[in-house]
Design a protein that fits this description.
Order of helices and strands: HHHHHH
Largest sheet: none
Number of strands: 0
Distance between the termini: 39 Å
Structural class: mainly alpha
Oligomer: single chain
Shape: globular
Radius of gyration: 19 Å
Length: 144
């Protein structure tokens, strides 16, 4: 459960802070990130000072997450996940440090909504995967 919450937090941060690395798409991704930031700012009723602090936190988190990915490039998947979740926890603590109590409650709701959306998308992808086609039967029989 905590893992899902942290992964949702990661998704939230990615939605807010990620910009494209490709030259041609950078402007489009920045516009999407700015639009998402504006929606979240409005929903949380952030002051201008909070918005500035949040942008700084998001920039710091992007840099730190990049470093975590690079330093764990050759690590086993569970180790990578553990390192990224630790970074997400730090990120979440920083974000919550900017918010007042009512904003924290709204932020928690927002994260739960994102978590539910991700769960639904994952279920949709699982349904779209072919389940036990003819090739699977042939492989089970040792013919492929």
């Amino acid at each position: 459960m905590k893992t899902m919450l942290r992964l949702c937090t990661l998704a939230f941060i990615v939605i807010l802070g990620t910009t494209a690395f490709a030259q041609g798409k950078k402007g489009m991704h920045k516009m999407k990130a700015d639009s998402a930031f504006a929606k979240v700012s409005e929903r949380l009723k952030l002051t201008e000072g909070q918005q500035t602090k949040l942008r700084e936190v998001m920039k710091q988190n992007r840099e730190e997450m990049k470093a975590v990915r690079e330093s764990n490039k050759d690590a086993a998947k569970p180790d990578k996940r553990k390192a990224m979740l630790a970074q997400l926890k730090k990120s979440d603590e920083r974000i919550n440090g900017i918010l007042d109590e009512s904003q924290k409650a709204e932020y928690a709701k927002l994260k739960e909504e994102k978590k539910a959306q991700m769960k639904a998308k994952r279920a949709e992808r699982q349904k779209a995967k072919p389940q036990g086609g003819a090739d699977d039967e042939l492989m089970d029989d040792g013919l492929l």
